Amino acid sequence: MDILEKIITYKRKETEERKQLYPLELLKKSIHFTAPCISLKQYVLRPDKSGIIAEFKRKSPSKGAINPYATVEKISIGYMQAGASALSVLTDESFFGGSNEDLETARKFNYCPILRKDFIVDEYQVYEAKAIGADAILLIAAVLSEEEISRFTALAHRLGMEVLLEFYAENELDACVEEADLVGINNRNLKNFTVNFDHAIRLAEKLPANSIKIAESGIQTPEDVIRLKKAGFDGFLIGELFMRAVSPEMACRDFIRKIQKHSLIETSTTRPL
Length: 273
Fold this sequence. Notes:
By secondary structure, the chain is α/β, with parallel strands linked by helices. Helix content is 42%, strand content 15%. An eight-stranded parallel beta barrel has the order 1-4-5-6-7-8-9-10, surrounded by six helices. A two-stranded antiparallel sheet has the order 2-3. The longest helix is centred in the last third of the chain and has 23 residues, at 248-270. The model has no long low-confidence stretch (mean pLDDT 92).
């Protein structure tokens, strides 16, 4: 069993247990359940923002502990002050060291789009995402049927949330539903966690031209973002690079400043005399 299969097997069991502990009717009583959502799509495309979706996570299955004692309040506020377009919060506890409480804390201190990053395999988790204050959810094509993707997307939209639909393999593109608000291409193979930008760029070329494309995982340098932006990507989900720093929010700020500096230089060199 590879890592992804192990996670999904555990997630299905965990979700059934959570249904017993926190019934759906209880989720619907959350103060967030009737609150309006903030558009991830709009914020990614805003010209005054960086396109960076800055992620909060404490560990990963492939790298182990990243920043186990990180404070979500400080880092999430710092990310947004640094110029990030949105936040991504890992809520999986067993494999990524996150929690629903992390996202609720980020929601309390930030007015910006927040993506719930988890492995959604059940409608219950879509309701749960809304109840904890998420504006968008991640759906992973590799672990869902086309029918499940359509159903979960429709439910998310009824609850006011948007959907980031993630792909890795070309054969998964058949499950691409036009209702998805954003399309993510994972630079990292979820089966063995290797990174390949060339693969992601080739896959993005096969998507509809009007897709809002998000490059996910494995981004290490501003040059990576610049390359992906030239290849047609609109947004860039970055977590581990920032979270490994002593001050993740400062690392995010410096990263964004380098991208902005490069953009200014490129604009000045291409401007006609």
